[in-house]
Amino acid sequence: xxxxxxxxxxxxxxxxxxxxxxxxxxxxxxxxxxxxxxxxxxxxxxxxxxxxxxxxxxxxxxxxxxxxxxxxxxxxxx
Length: 78
Hints:
Layout: H1 4-12, H2 34-48, H3 63-77
Helix pairs in contact: 1-2
């Protein structure tokens, strides 16, 4: 199960968080295109309150990798 904030993020993109597994890749498994990656980037910054480099959110990363990267950024800012 995804952390609450990530459930909120994916829900805002009209992706059902209950169907997401952490090993899924953004492009291959979730079918996200480049526009959706940009929308994901904006949603993460808005919901999580951290700046994320867009190139850190590649289509080939897994949901788990994404969560770890964002959590690491949050820890660096605290």
